[in-house]
Amino acid sequence: MAGYRSKTGTAGAADRSPEAGRRRELLREMLRVRRLEERCVELYSEAKIRGFLHVYIGEEAVAAGVMSALAPEDAVVATYREHGHALLRGVPAGAILAEMYGKVEGCCRGRGGSMHLFDADTRFYGGNAIVAGGLPLAVGLALADKLSGRSRVTACFFGEGAAAEGEFHESLNLAALWNLPVLFCCENNLYAMGTALARSQSQTDLALKAASYEIPSWAVDGMDVLEVEGAARRAADGIRGGSGPHFLELRTYRFRAHSMFDPERYRDKAEVARWTERDPLLLLRTLLESSGQLDAADWEAMEREVDAEMAEAVRFAEAGTPEPADQLLRFVYSTPVQP
Ligand SMILES: Cc1ncc(C[n+]2csc(CCOP(=O)(O)OP(=O)(O)O)c2C)c(N)n1
Ligand SMILES: [Mg+2]
């Protein structure tokens, strides 16, 4: 992260306690997402990645904090701004990039692209391009778990724009009515494409909307990964304890455009600059450095390892194979079962 200065400076001074190690791990996870997407933007500019591309830069604390409160058997449902969620859930960076390159080695054989990452092995259920489309899916997954007596959480990420959709209200209502194990994670970055929240929704307190369905809900500083993690743990514990759905409004901001096609006429540069002062990586890094939990050598090693991971992912994607044209109808229809 060019421009960031270490306050502690000397290598080898950092706190080696498990707690400090866990926090450094959160920083590393956010850095992995940041670096992956910085590469995506470059590769898009080089026309190696085509189609739509929505980056999460600025919002990393939300996915990193929530994901750290989940267990491997839990499920995750996300939106089209989901590269970071897939990566932190355990989908390899190479499989994500190969997917964007349209290669067979991608997590969906290159058929889904950026907006439709999916991986059944890690219970990562998309990559959903329809605004609010993931919410009923999450409710269905949670209903299946409840009916089968499985103690699992389904975490559902969606933007604040989803709260204006009917599916949001139908999903919250049924989840509350049937006491389903869903963790609703509303990523409130203040804009739905170019429309500010206050221009499209009469009630801008999103946690209050959830509370109207009798769902325990609270607003969280989505730039502070430790706060997000704490809130997500509290909510996940409540869900596992049988107290039904919980809702987090995670207040965050995207530093980049909505997608790669967005002239950004709806917000001024001063607003973006104000929010970048609260960059989630900068906040955590500064906290760790000033409290002796991270030193210059730790940070340099972290950057080196993450850069190497992403370089290898790009190499893997570029070395991949495009789906042969005669295979393109495969998986469009299921194979009929022979009697
Ligand atoms: C049902 C539906 N309507 C419209 C769109 C077009 N669209 C794509 S992204 C988007 C904005 C969604 O904003 P938000 O939910 O706040 O998520 P963010 O992009 O800010 O993460 C819209 C309207 C869509 N994909 N689906
Ligand atoms: Mg939004």
From TrEMBL:
This is Pyruvate dehydrogenase E1 component subunit alpha. CDD domains: TPP_E1_PDC_ADC_BCADC (cd02000). It is an enzyme of class 1 (oxidoreductase). Its EC number is 1.2.4.1. Residues 29-320 form the Dehydrogenase E1 component domain. Heterodimer of an alpha and a beta chain. NCBIfam families: PDH_E1_alph_y. The keyword Oxidoreductase applies. It catalyses: N(6)-[(R)-lipoyl]-L-lysyl-[protein] + pyruvate + H(+) = N(6)-[(R)-S(8)-acetyldihydrolipoyl]-L-lysyl-[protein] + CO2. It holds the Pfam family E1_dh. It comes from the Bacteria. Keywords: Oxidoreductase, Pyruvate, Thiamine pyrophosphate. The pyruvate dehydrogenase complex catalyzes the overall conversion of pyruvate to acetyl-CoA and CO(2). Residues 1-20 are annotated as: Disordered. It comes from Arthrobacter mangrovi. Its cofactor is thiamine diphosphate.
